[in-house]
Amino acid sequence: MGDYFFELISYVILVFTGIFPIANPFSTAPVFLALTINNSKKERNRIAAKASIYMAIILLLFLCVGALILGFFNISIPGLRIAGGLIIIVTGIKMLFPDTNRTNEVHLPSENENIAFTPLAMPLLSGPGSISVVLSMSDRVSSAHSTKEMLIGYCVVALGIILTVFACWAVLRSSAKISRFMGKSGIDVLTRMMAFFLVAIGVEFFLGGISEYINNARFTTMV
Which residues cross the membrane (predicted)? Predict the structure, then answer.
């Protein structure tokens, strides 16, 4: 029983490590600070909480209906993993080698605009990369051998998503302290480190998708 529990915990952590580098709240923190520069600490905390809730809703929604979306568009699991891997690789490369010619101007929205949803929750925290990872995980879970395994798989991924959301909320809530402590260069170094792991994760997704696609093609040919 104990070994099974620790195995589930390891899977939750695996889900967390797959999504958190893509969400990368450390790179969102400076944007969050710029967008809430005129807000009080209480208001900033409320916006951080709302952005985290929106992030959870988006990712959990794609987790629950991911299989339906794939079925509707007739997308195979290997195809999804290849596409998701490419998106993650490109995202990581862009983070590793940012375009220095572009200015990092931040659009300050009016009070009527909900910055918690856009741009914080979507696309900064739960963008295409995070959604691709969740969709791929949803596909793996839906292909479980039994209903019990499938339900456990969904619960594990959901816990990993919630853990990621909680970590992102903590980073946003502490963004002012983190920014002062790490400085611009420190945040840049951390972002590049996460970008490196992001590229590695994307390569694993891509190669795994190609391998599965080739194996499926061979099986179809043999049949």
Answer: 12-35, 47-73, 79-97, 150-172, 193-214
